[in-house]
């Protein structure tokens, strides 16, 4: 496996997992006065869609 593909897969995986536990959104939630559960559904939907895109991209894009 090419080193570039390994690095890209690692980076995508790290960013993808941050959608499950969106700790990056805590400051945003404080500013707009939302609860955590009000955005988890949206991040779960984005998690599934980007998971499919990442899987297809890493499978079919040649390196």
UniProtKB/TrEMBL annotation:
It comes from the Bacteria. The keyword Ligase does not apply. Pfam families: SCFA_trans (PF02667). InterPro entries: SCFA_transpt_AtoE. GO terms for cellular component: plasma membrane. Keywords: Membrane, Transmembrane, Transmembrane helix. The chain crosses the membrane at residues 39-61. The keyword Transmembrane applies. This is Short-chain fatty acid transporter. It comes from Desulfotomaculum copahuensis.
């Amino acid at each position: 496996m090419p080193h570039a593909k390994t690095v890209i897969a690692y980076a995508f995986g790290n960013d993808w997992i941050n959608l499950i536990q969106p700790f990056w959104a805590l400051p945003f939630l404080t500013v707009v006065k939302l609860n955590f559960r009000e955005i988890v559904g949206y991040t779960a939907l984005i998690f599934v869609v980007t998971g499919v895109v990442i899987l297809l991209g890493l499978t079919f894009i040649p390196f």
